Amino acid sequence: MKIQLLPSTFNAQGCAKQEQRLTCYLVDDRVAIDAGSIALSLSDEQRDTVRDIIVTHPHMDHIASLPIFVDDLFGFLKSPIRIHATEEVIELLERDIFNWTVYPRFSELKNDYGPVMEYVPFSVGVEFPVAHLRVTAVNVNHIVPTVGLIVTDGKTTLALSSDTAETEDFWTLVNGTPRIDALLIEASFPNSMAKLAEDSRHFTPESLSRELRKLDHNGIDILTVHLKPAYREKVAEELKALAIPKLEIMETGRCYEW
């Protein structure tokens, strides 16, 4: 399985930088998890192959360019973009984004080939198919309805926390999964901002360190994500100081493969 954190920040020459302002993970060039930078960073080839998007929650950094992605492809889609989300998140997307004010309600529109976007609801705790993958969602501890994910292609299995603070159900699911090859988990704020992290339901390196004690799988790759750009250097320094084996910051644009 291959996964890439799509870039969302670029320098004056148009080259991708490491600051992560928007969130979008691309799995095997076919399935996106969240859609913050999906319209900004896909290659032309990837734009032709990505038709399934899993939305973990409706915060703007996770959905910012989703409407633009559908809009760009509107006239060319021969099959609809499938948005996989919980019923609750689908309702929020329809209410707040695809509401004919912020953007058209693409779920009601067609091009010459048929529908251009459709919702595929899933339930937490129940495995569901997405393209060639099998996915299980679990509620995590964020300030809006949010799910973490277990994603497998039958050979490789990844766990992704999405945005969360201290949580329990996620670890129950992760530890109950026989094999986990890698864990993607957030670390947003430096330790000095622990109160803000707690209020906004995010981790600092210190709270992440405590949380990782709940992980039963030993020796797996741990990739930290969602570092707030303004504090990236400090968070990176504090993550390194944890000296946790195989823990590193996920690089934007790099393809990781297990």
Structural notes for this entry:
The chain has a single domain, classed as Ribonuclease Z/Hydroxyacylglutathione hydrolase-like (Metallo-beta-lactamase, Chain A, 4-Layer Sandwich). A seven-stranded mixed β-sheet has the order 8-5-4-3-2-1-16. The chain has nine helices and 16 strands. The longest helix is centred in the middle third of the chain and has 10 residues. The chain is 24% helix and 24% strand. With 258 residues, the chain is α/β, with parallel strands linked by helices. The mean pLDDT is 96. The relative contact order is 0.14.
Strand arrangement in the largest pleated sheet = 8-5-4-3-2-1-16
As residue ranges, the low-confidence spans are none
The beta-strand count equals: 16
SS summary, helix count: 9
The coarse silhouette is globular
Helix/sheet category: alpha/beta
Strand content: 15-25%
CATH topology: Metallo-beta-lactamase, Chain A
In N-to-C order, the SSE pattern is: EEEHHEHHEHEEEEEEEHEHHEHEE
Q: Separation of termini?
A: 6 Å
Mean pLDDT: 96
How much helix is in the residues? 10-25%
Whole-number tally of structural domains = 1
Q: Which CATH architecture?
A: 4-Layer Sandwich
Record keyword descriptors for this entry:
258 residues, alpha/beta, Metallo-beta-lactamase, Chain A, seven-stranded mixed sheet, 24% helix, 24% strand, globular
